[in-house]
Amino acid sequence: MLVETSTAKERPIGCKAEKDRRKKHADTNRNISESNAIMKSFTSSLDERLERSEKMQMENLQLKREKMHHIRLMNEKMIMDTKLDGMTLVQREWYQLQQAEILQRWKESSMGGGNSSGGKN
């Protein structure tokens, strides 16, 4: 009889099981919501990091372009400043050809509205 009285005080098994099932379902939904929030935060920070990386790569590329441009101008200036006296005929012709090409590029860049630094000081 004691067993019957103790079971009589408890809720029916169906109600308790339903309550547990709802609690598990609510916990699962809460975990899914938390996971979604974490994933959104992670993807957002990943996107920001990717954007910063792309920006740094573009800036690095621009710096490399400027450096190459500066090196080219220095080389062109060196060719333009080269004295042709005492050179062999072949060397002189090569330098004269280079100087003519450089001068043409400088004229085009100053007339075309491009970079007008063109080695002119």
UniProtKB/TrEMBL annotation:
Chain residue ranges for the region called Disordered: 1-40
Pfam families linked to this entry: NAM-associated
Domain No apical meristem-associated C-terminal: 5-102
Source organism phylogeny: Eukaryota, Viridiplantae, Streptophyta, Embryophyta, Tracheophyta
Compositional bias (Basic and acidic residues): 7-20
Top-level taxon of the source organism: Eukaryota
Residue ranges, compositional bias (Polar residues): 29-40
Name this polypeptide is given: No apical meristem-associated C-terminal domain-containing protein
